[in-house]
Predict the structure.
Amino acid sequence: MINPLLFGAAAGAGVSASSAAESARASSAAGGAKRDVAHLEDRLERLSLVCMAMWSLIQDKTKLTEDDLMERVKMIDLMDGVEDGKATRNVQKCHACNRTMSARHRKCLYCGAEKLAQSAFDTI
Ligand SMILES: [Zn+2]
């Protein structure tokens, strides 16, 4: 015989434990996302610093001006046909299976072939 009070209490406890576990998973995922964002912000700051240092060196060693740089930024921005302030990478086909490769992965998601670097920026 099932005691409805006990069954109800157990079911209620199960839902509560499940909600608590789900809340803990969501909290952990949010913490991981915060760490990822902090890591990316740190990398962005370091990359910005290196870019500024390189540009400073280039200006010291050449006759290039800020206008030259801005013109080149616009030219590279427009290489994908859209002036959006972003350098979009070209879609790359896998040299082994000829499927489209993910820009975020170093290997083909279909056959596992290594992505061939077409420029120094493909190695980043
Ligand atoms: Zn492939």
